Amino acid sequence: MRLPDNILQKTKIVLHAIQGLVIFLAWAIIIAIFTKPGSTDGRIKYFFALCWFCIPLLIYQTGVPQFNRTKRFSNAYAHFVIDALLTIFWFAAFISVATWTNEGIKKGVGRPGTRGCEAFAWGDGKSRGSKCHLSQAIIGMGVVLL
Q1: How far apart, in whole angstroms, are the C-alpha atoms of residue 23 and residue 33?
Q2: How many degrees, rounded to 5, is the angle at CA 20 between CA 46 and CA 8?
Q3: Which of 76, 90, 97, 112 has the fewest CB atoms within 10 Å, counting from its CB?
């Protein structure tokens, strides 16, 4: 016997759909960071890889509980473990991009007349400030994804 969907299940599906949209936007901004001249390291690449890693997990969490044939694969403990792991992974991704951005700002502070994103060390010329601002947008999205 199938139990009817309650408001909590529908809310969880809507929240995961919003999470998927924010992940897509973060993925697009990460690609914009990669296209700017300058260097990136593993911290930015970890965030990019996590965007791809979340796709099958979000499909499982939103799609499996909705259909009769796949409902048997839906387990409350599995959903809890996936949510807990994604929370830890997104927290690590958010912190890694924040440390990358702060390190880039600190390394460029020695230049005269520069502060904040103007002093970002991982960019070249005009891309310096825009790369920093894009990474700050990624930090904000990481906070939303938590």
Answers
A1: 15
A2: 125
A3: 112
Question: How far is residue 58 from each of residues 45, 47, 48, 112, measured CA to CA in Å?
Answer: 20, 16, 16, 47
Query: What pLDDT digit, counting tens, does each position of 50-62 carry?
Result: 999 999 999 898 8
Confidence of residue 82 (pLDDT cuts 50, 70, 90): very high
Measured distance CA(95)–CA(137) in Å, rounded: 13
Please answer whether residues 49 and 97 qualify as being in contact, where contact means their C-beta atoms are separated by less than 8 angstroms: no
108 half-sphere exposure, CB direction, 13 A CA radius: 22
**Rounded to whole angstroms, what are the CA distances from 104 to 40, 64, 65, 90?**
10, 42, 44, 21
CB-based burial of residue 135 (10 Å sphere; 0-12 exposed, 13-18 middle, 19+ buried)? buried
d(CA 38, CA 16): 34
DSSP label at residue 121: T
